[in-house]
Amino acid sequence: MTEIVVSESESGSRLDAFLAAHVGSRTAAQKAISEGRVTVDGESRQKRWIVSNSEVVRVASLVPTKREITPTDVTIPVVWSDSHLAVIDKPIGLVAHPAPGHPTGTLSQILEANHPEREIGLVHRLDRDTSGLLVVAFDDSTLRDLRSALQDRTVVREYTALVMGHPRSSEGTVDAPIGRDRNSRTRMSIRTDTPRHAVTHFEVIETLADATLLRVRLETGRTHQIRVHLAEVGLPVAGDPVYGKAGAWSLGRQFLHAARLSFQHPKTGELIDLSSPLPEDLESALESARRGDRP
After folding, report:
1. Which residues constitute the domain of residue 227?
2. Ranges of the chain whose pLDDT falls below 50
3. 253: nearest Cα among 134, 161, 188, 125
4. CA angle 141-63-126, nearest 5°?
5. 164 near 245, Cβ under 8 Å?
6. What are the distances in angstroms from CA 271 to CA 88, 209, 261?
7. Within-domain flag for 86
8. CATH of the domain at 232
9. pLDDT digits over 185-216, tens only?
10. pTM of the entire structure?
11. How many C-beta atoms surround the C-beta of residue 268 within 10 A?
């Protein structure tokens, strides 16, 4: 069983088109739908069904079954867990779900292979090369409750970002709709024909010679939101190959880390408040920036 959560950028697509983006062809998607192997939030739907943000699309036997998936050598640290959910510290280089170019070795598949007795539902996503804390649900009820908490903005998601340049004030908010760039389908942008509400808050942690270390908090969760918003206000994330300067301070990816995750446990009411230290590659780049090395 493959489970795919509809992202905000994918909302409004036909079910067959949505699935095609994940399985490689519309023919394969339509075949799965016609064979009754596809459900949306537990209900069978036709190919013309319009998917909405946060809906859960499940497909039976779309990818190799759990016993056929070979866990990779990637270690995914679990920092907190119980029978309902887990918070993991995602390493870089992992995409969330199978997609064109990444049919196997995804985060969801690795978790399924390592926990074959459980249903795995990613509550939210991180970019492939963004590291840090991510919450995973082990049952439908917990998944729905946590997604509702995200939509109600009661989940605190804080990131650490090293950006090029210096903001004009010690804190700020970027409130600008984001969607697919009208000139490039691989980029997100505020110059878009499909704008979606997006708000990002930031505050200065440390000011360096050529950069600034920021604490960033998401109010909404659009694709590439932090990277796009900070670039738009003249503060591109260091090392960002799409919206900033690749390779700054020898970075092999963008300096963006999901450093804190705080939420109320949907079943027990317990406050879960967790932090993750900077990975070694980001710590090394930060030390270079502190020494005044040129980016």
Report:
1. 156-291
2. 62-72
3. 161
4. 55
5. yes
6. 16, 38, 11
7. no
8. 3.30.2350.10
9. 789 999 999 899 999 999 999 999 999 999 99
10. 0.76
11. 10
Dihedral angle of Cα 72, 256, 8, 230, to the nearest 10 degrees: -160
Give dist(CA 202, CA 147) in Å, integer: 23
Q: How many CB atoms lie within 10 A of CB 114?
A: 15
Helical pair 26-34 and 15-23, crossing angle rounded to 10 deg: 120
Domain count for the chain: 2
127 a catalytic residue? yes
Q: Which of 16, 127, 240, 281 is catalytic?
A: 127
Query: Can you name the residues that pair with 187 across neighbouring β-strands?
Result: none
For residue 287, what pLDDT is reported?
97
Is 48 in the same domain as 171?
Answer: no
50: domain CATH number is 3.10.290.10
In a domain, 282, yes or no: yes
Distance CA 22, CA 4 (A): 9
Q: Supply the Cα-derived Rg of the chain in whole angstroms.
A: 19
Residue 128 CB partners (closer than 8 Å, separation 6+): 92, 93, 94, 95
Phi, psi of 19 (to 5 degrees): -65, -35
Residue where a domain stops, chosen among 43, 61, 79: 61
